[in-house]
Amino acid sequence: MRTEPIAPSLRVGRGRPDPLELIRGLEPKAALAAELKPALSDRDALAEAYRCLECGTPEVPAPCQVACPAEVDVAGFVGRIARGDAGGAARLILSSNPVGGSCARVCPTELLCEGACVLNTARDRPVDIGRLQRYAMDAAFADPASLVVDLPVKNGLRVAVIGAGPAGLATAAFLEGAGFIVTIFDDRPKAGGLVRYAIAPYRLWDEPLPEEQSWLAGLGVEFRLEHPIQSPVDLRELEAEYDAVVLAVGLGPDVRTQYPGGELPGIYESLPFIEAVKTDRPPAMGRRVAVIGGGNTAIDVAREALRLGAAEVTLVYRRTEAEMPAYPEEVAGARREGIRFQFLASPVAFRGSSHVEAVVAQVMRLGEPDATGRRRPEPVPGETVEILADSVVMAIGQEPRLTFLRMIPGLEIDRGRIVADPKTGATGNPRYFAAGDAVNGGDTVVAAVHLGKVAAHGVRQALLGGDAP
Ligand SMILES: Cc1cc2nc3c(=O)[nH]c(=O)nc-3n(C[C@H](O)[C@H](O)[C@H](O)COP(=O)(O)OP(=O)(O)OC[C@H]3O[C@@H](n4cnc5c(N)ncnc54)[C@H](O)[C@@H]3O)c2cc1C
User: Fold this and answer.
1) pLDDT, tens digit (0-9, with 9 covering 90-100), for 111-167
2) I need a surface site. Which of 216, 293, 311, 349 has the fewest CB within 10 A?
């Protein structure tokens, strides 16, 4: 246990607002922006920080730190907030997680740090770690001088990072902090990857990505945005100019499907749909919306459609709730907001004359478990169901970026994922390292940060020698 005095718990901090209350009666833009985890006031942050028992020691980290893929010293930063040092808290967070402000808003904390909190018992509730992390980062970004740190002397080695999503940003921060000269290339106009263009606006719209980018630029990272690396010639140029290249390219567009009627107006793919919402071009939603899929993206899209004004939103999934890849908390949140679920139904066609009017779905039943351990859906012969819908969003996953990855000689790819050493991010091509969704097949922002850290470590070892820290 820590030796610093433990402050007494003042009171149970305020809980989070009911999501339905948040959006009731609001215009679409305001409903979309109404945060599920709003900022804490100074008073609430202090009261919440005092609840933390600051457990753990340097030798035996606290359970919340162990549960965090970025290994943020939660007890350490919460203790600093309790002592009025938000800048110190933010510096500690950034030392483990360069996108700590974004993670504070988007991490599934219930499953990670807060799930592991020792106060997470039947009689109590965990410390609101996510919102405390946000509190520290917001306070520090409002006072950038509090984040100034001594920069190391440059070692003259240059690294190109392809992709300005969380994996690329984390890799760049750790390498720049270790004395490398880092340039990030990204094809999009803004940094952040899916965090900017796909994560639900009621978690994060834009802030604090610009601040995180500025902080990284302050470390020395050069951003070349709207700069796709798209041909073997582009790659050869990077290889000539840089000592190592890190592939943090994430996954590609939505998985394509072809059903009769799929060309009807009113049918969208999930990523362009969310991007349109997040760039202030929300698609016109009908009264009835069907969302196809059972993952977190499908849940997000359903909740966004509701906020855009749809009266009835139905999520259509081919297995049952028990097999849904979406987090149970997210499913429960969607259900509380009134999202309907049509389980054991798999689309086979769309019906409509000049616009989509219904999803025609094959009725399924569950068979034996498949390779993932989940029971396999099987068609019930001759049984279909129609779900009336004047807008449909397909949210069934992302394709890997195979065309691009195949341009890199020696790169090994397994089921769409780059094969990379889990301890170094090294790939089959000694000039290339890899991190993020492109390696793990799609997970969370904080998992991408972890792999970014691993790749930075691998580059350091490869370019500076085996014992590099
Ligand atoms: C709809 C949706 C909602 C999500 N919600 C959450 C959430 O709430 N919480 C959470 O933790 N995770 C969430 N995730 C997952 C999370 O966003 C990803 O795991 C994470 O962003 C992966 O980071 P990355 O850096 O590997 O890839 P990305 O974020 O995809 O970034 C890759 C970047 O590389 C760029 N790029 C690709 N190829 C090239 C090239 N050839 N040249 C130049 N640039 C290139 C891309 O444009 C992109 O900017 C969500 C994902 C989706 C799809």
Assistant:
1) 999 999 999 998 899 999 999 999 999 999 999 888 988 888 999 999 999 999 999
2) 311
CATH topology for 158-252+399-464 is FAD/NAD(P)-binding domain (3.50.50)
Which residues make beta-bridge pairs with 433?
246, 426
Among 469, 441, 434, which residue's Cα sits nearest to residue 161?
A: 434
**Pairing verdict, β 375-388 and 358-369:** antiparallel
Q: How confident is the model at residue 18 (pLDDT cuts 50, 70, 90)?
A: low
* Superfamily, domain 267-394: FAD/NAD(P)-binding domain (3.50.50.60)
Q: Output the DSSP codes for 397-425.
A: -B---HHHHTTSTT--EETTEE---TTT-
Determine whether the shortest distance from the Cβ of 99 to ligand 1 is under 6 A.
no
SS3 380: strand
CA distances from 271 to 42, 134, 190, 297, 330 (A): 36, 26, 16, 9, 18
252 lines ligand 1 (CB under 6 A): no
Cα–ligand 1 centroid distance for 198 (angstroms): 8
Of the chain, the end-to-end C-alpha distance in Å amounts to 27
User: E strand or H helix at 222, and its extent?
Assistant: strand 222-224
Q: Check for a shared fold between 158-252+399-464 and 267-394.
A: yes
Q: What is the pLDDT of residues 155-187, one digit of tens each?
A: 999 999 999 999 999 999 999 999 999 999 999
Any idea how long the chain is? 469
Q: Which atom of ligand 1 is nearest to the CA of 404?
A: 41
Which atom of ligand 1 sits closest to the CA of residue 447?
19
Identify the CA nearest to 216 among candidates 153, 172, 251.
172
338 touches 308 (CB < 8 A) = no
